[in-house]
Automatic annotation (TrEMBL):
The lineage of its organism: Archaea, Methanobacteriati, Methanobacteriota, Stenosarchaea group, Halobacteria. Pfam families: SBP_bac_5. It comes from Natronobacterium texcoconense. Residues 106-466 form the Solute-binding protein family domain. One of its GO terms (cellular component) is periplasmic space. This is Peptide/nickel transport system substrate-binding protein. Residues 28-65 are annotated as: Disordered.
Amino acid sequence: MVDMSRPTRRRVLASGAAVSAAAIAGCIGEDGEEDDNGEEPADIGEYQYDREEPGDEETASGSSIEFLQPAERDEDFDPVVSFDSYSMQVANLVFDGLYEWDDEMELEPKIADGMPEEEDDGETFIFEIQDGIEFHNGDEVTASDVAHSFTAPVEEETENAATYAMIESAEPIDDYSLEVNLEHPYGPFTLVTMAVNVVPEEVRTEDREDFNTDPIGSGPFQFTDFQAGEYVELERWDDYWDEPQPYVEEIRFEDAPDDANRVAQVLAGDADVIDTVPATEWDEVDGADDVRIHGSRSPSYMYLAFNCNEGETTDPDVRRAVGHSFSMQEFVNEHLGPAAAPLVSPVPEITNDEGDWEFPVDEWEEMMPEYDPEQAEQLLEDAGVSDDWEPRIIAPEGGPREALAERIGSRLTEIGYGADVQGMSFATLVDTYTTGNADDYEMYLLGWTGGPDPDAYFYNLFHESQEEVGQGHFYEGQGEFHDNILEARESADQDERRELYIDVTEEILEYMPVLPAYSEHNTMAAREEVMDLHAHPAVSYNPRIVSDYQNTWVDE
């Protein structure tokens, strides 16, 4: 399934794919904390709604939905190999997981019969699965299928391998139980890795290529039609084993990467639901009488990274000066409004809250540089930075992150310096930001999507083993910085891991190899007749359609 816990370079691309592609121009002027109208932006919580129940279940059960996605799919629907969010939006309706995330990002049993029995200090897990669950072809789901789902990503060297690489073995004990052994304790295992989508081993291995585009799962929907690069059509599986049964009878997914076109279609009633409400179109969509925005906080993390390998930004005082040169709060208010929230650490708000980490966020907020152009200018002068310094800032072209790069460049110009801001395609960007060459960049803006465990952010974005893979800042760290990240990764003790992550975060905020920017929320816009729709924190779970907390239908 989509790797929520350990993204690779390609995951950086996926993170950007969900961001508005419309250009947003930066503004020059006084930095504060309010939007252009002098008001605080609305909270994303205002776009979450109470449960809705149909008056006529028989009529609701004939519902159909057309869902527009904001990026092209990779067209990999086999969760063993699928690695983009939009293919997984389809696959997550076709397959059930051993465990699945609820709307608060907590794992709950699905195919599993309760939580696993843990042995050997977190290196062995015994899973029981429910009997009588069937795949769409009538085959029963067995422990062998679950074991295959755990081990296939590594054995086949897929892009999902890192999620399961710590698994030494997964062996059935009988048809309804299996034992999973880890090479070492792995902190995120019970928070993330257990959410594996279960595939039928025999059918899948008979013809993996065919299975990838005509999959068979045990989920509430099954494939009926697929045209590569155009659409996927699913229909309700009326023999679905779990409750509740979905009201939606058919759902059609289409690519619609052009923001304005996607919004125009839902406003005109030519589509039922669209994924991602662009910041540039937010007010128009929010003001429409017959369309509702649905939103949820997400585990996305956008950031400004500094080249710690070459150039003026190898000096932490220069990095801090850049942080003082502009206001992240004002930028988010003006350019993203309710669609995002500023961050004060590499751990998104939802990861901290729903994971019960209880990090000292208030203390971290005080460590973040406030907008203070005089201090920024003084720090640069004391660091011996010449007046003709114009650092190159690179960012994905045409979206909020390029606008943020332009805002930083404008503020540096105001205090007597400048910047060479370059928006790039993702393909060019990933070949550039990992070089470590100051001529290529001294700062870059990117994003990452993790999950309920901080390891997703700290290991991939800061551990030295990931240089030139998921990071290009080349931060050597002070003392035990990298050792602490690895130790937290290989510990099953959350209290121990929490303390290690606090130390790591405080070093990041003090030496600032990366400046946290914002978390962009998951949003959808739907016609008002689409009922009981709820945005999930994980983009790959949208639209959820049916779960314990929702059963979407269209009130014709």
